[in-house]
Amino acid sequence: MKDAWSSDEIRKAEEPLIAAGEPLMARAAYGLAQVVLREVALRRAEGRAGTADGARQGRARLRGSLGSDGLPGQARVRPGRVVGRRTADAGAPGGRGDVRGAHAVLLVGPGNNGGDTLFAGAHLVRRGMTVTAVLASARAHEAGLAAFRAAGGRAASLADVRVPAVVELALGADVILDGLVGVGARGALRPPAGGLVRALADARDAAADRWPYTVAVDIPSGIGVDDGAVPGPVLRADRTVTFGALKPGLLLPPAAQTAGEVELVDVGFPASPASGAARRNGVARHAWGTTDPAAGRVLRLEPADVAALWPAPGARDHKYTRGAVGVVAGTSTYPGAAVLAASGAVLSGAGMVRYLGPEVVGTRVLLARPEVVVAGGRVQSWVLGPGVPALDPDDEGPDDDGQARRIFGALAAVTGVLSEDVTGGRMPAVVDAGALTMLEHRLPPSVVLTPHAGELAELLRGLGHEVDRTAVEARPLHWARTAHQATGGTILLKGAVTVVAGPGDVYAQADAPAWTATAGAGDVLAGILGTLLAGRSRAVVEDETLAARLAAAAVLVHGRAAARASAGGPVAALEIARAVPAVVAELLAGADPA
Ligand SMILES: NC(=O)C1=CN([C@@H]2O[C@H](COP(=O)(O)OP(=O)(O)OC[C@H]3O[C@@H](n4cnc5c(N)ncnc54)[C@H](OP(=O)(O)O)[C@@H]3O)[C@@H](O)[C@H]2O)[C@@H](O)CC1
Ligand SMILES: Nc1ncnc2c1ncn2[C@@H]1O[C@H](COP(=O)(O)OP(=O)(O)O)[C@@H](O)[C@H]1O
Ligand SMILES: [K+]
């Protein structure tokens, strides 16, 4: 599990260490320099090699000389992906490849983030690189600047060289280090740093592949450290080298998409933040939907976490103990969604899938998945709404083949409104697509709403918030939490990075390739989640934080299955469902099916 620390938690962690004289900045700078040396050497070896075979040989040569650190995969970079932990002061220096004569440009701000960058720059100079520091502010970290100059680095003030000249300098460099601001920053980058970053970001877009490798120091300067917002210009990084602990903005959209691969340098922080345990315990005290919106940590599940959560059957299980999923999806106009949701549920390992809907759709579901029972009966979770049109209050008789009526009935049951319902009362549910427009009662967190940004905006507008799709995409964490507060349900907000917000911790999952953005992919996800909720139905109702964890697990499996089915190319939604069994098998065997 990846666990992000807020800027306050970072400060609390560093205080006693600094008081004890621990050389935090030296460790951070050393770790940063090692990553830069490794990446520059790697690129040089590839550049010289010229052919694909030669590039492979170049990598192999480097791997031999880099020792046990290993090289993170370059071919399948997913924005916002977090790679391994690295100890700054462990063992021999990392990058032993040839970096002599390579040119680095440092963007240096006034605080300790600039200090890290200058000390790292001194290491780079000592390894034979040509390093130019652009001081964006009248102030710079004194000791860092002195060390940088003493090593032979060149420093120039932005006020003297001006923005266009820095852009030219950057275009001729091998690597850029963005050390303008770190966790001490607040709000959008102010001038002159803001103007510089805007010009560099524009130049990066225009230059495409010719842009130098860009490393963000601790965070890409200008992102919202704690909320993942991007309030102003940010220079997109290929890699972020972050210190001590991950920050929420490195996991959360949209900021996570500016961070590239994230690499953690251990500077000696404790295993968890001081306030972590208290916050975790605090979660249980909240009643439905009354959670403090700022409470809860930002986490990202990894394959091992999902393996532990997955309701794998034991020898004593039979189909009823494993959980039946009731699917109310599709209409005669949109029958495909029913097939996709039912397939997602069956192929994730439901004990049974029941389909409720018009006969014409039920027949198609059966043709695709003969395992499905097209009849009502007891279920342990509901999947409601894929392929069902949104409710239009002005329309007297919507053409929904009776699906809205079935959904209203199921929703009354899952919220516990019907005490004597045939289903036996409250149970988990997935509420997707058209069913999102049919919410009448306050929801328990065991009901998971699965909107994309447009659907969430519509839901929020119905609750009195002035918000559109763009606004939701700009602040997904905020709006997902707001919707949780307003409805009581757990919110799974779909996107390139999917955010899950319920009572307690927030999950930010970045598991899927962009090819997943295809019609029907969300229907498959709803089915997968239905199976997970049915497999742990009682526990989900009793533990108000479990639905969010299971939702994040479903997103991981869905994303990995999409990656598997895509193999780097287009993917059809049904193929995502078909890839699920192998992905689950690998997860349960302890492998990472990336
Ligand atoms: N924590 C740790 O354990 C370790 C931390 N380390 C490092 O320290 C970093 C934190 O350093 P920090 O606290 O000095 O703040 P930092 O991020 O450099 O920026 C503050 C400066 O930026 C300015 N500024 C603020 N907002 C701005 C804006 N919107 N636009 C423009 N400028 C803005 C602000 O100016 P002011 O508002 O005061 O005028 C202030 O001068 C951390 O990210 C990591 O890299 C490592 O060395 C070791 C381990
Ligand atoms: N850029 C992207 N990268 C990766 N995954 C994405 C991206 N955009 C959307 N997705 C994922 O694709 C799926 C699309 O679901 P949805 O919008 O509900 O489509 P539909 O309703 O047609 O099934 C979601 O799982 C979402 O998280
Ligand atoms: K930075």
Automatic annotation (TrEMBL):
Residues 47-96 are annotated as: Disordered. CDD domains: YXKO-related (cd01171). Keywords: ATP-binding, Isomerase, Kinase, Lyase, Metal-binding, NAD, NADP, Nucleotide-binding, Potassium, Transferase. (6S)-NADPHX binds at residues 112-116, 182-188, 218, 337, 387, 452, 523. It catalyses: (6S)-NADPHX + ADP = AMP + phosphate + NADPH + H(+); (6R)-NADHX = (6S)-NADHX; (6S)-NADHX + ADP = AMP + phosphate + NADH + H(+); (6R)-NADPHX = (6S)-NADPHX. Signal peptide: none annotated. Pfam families: Carb_kinase, YjeF_N. InterPro entries: Carbohydrate_kinase_pred_CS, CARKD, Ribokinase-like, YjeF_N_dom, YjeF_N_dom_sf. One of its GO terms (biological process) is nicotinamide nucleotide metabolic process. K(+) binds at residues 113, 178, 221. Residues 10-275 form the YjeF N-terminal domain. Its EC number is 4.2.1.136, 5.1.99.6. Transmembrane segments: none annotated. Binds 1 potassium ion per subunit. AMP binds at residues 494-498, 522. PANTHER family: ATP-DEPENDENT (S)-NAD(P)H-HYDRATE DEHYDRATASE, ATP-DEPENDENT (S)-NAD(P)H-HYDRATE DEHYDRATASE FAMILY MEMBER. Bifunctional enzyme that catalyzes the epimerization of the S- and R-forms of NAD(P)HX and the dehydration of the S-form of NAD(P)HX at the expense of ADP, which is converted to AMP. This allows the repair of both epimers of NAD(P)HX, a damaged form of NAD(P)H that is a result of enzymatic or heat-dependent hydration. Catalyzes the epimerization of the S- and R-forms of NAD(P)HX, a damaged form of NAD(P)H that is a result of enzymatic or heat-dependent hydration. This is a prerequisite for the S-specific NAD(P)H-hydrate dehydratase to allow the repair of both epimers of NAD(P)HX. In the C-terminal section; belongs to the NnrD/CARKD family. Homotetramer. This is Multifunctional fusion protein.
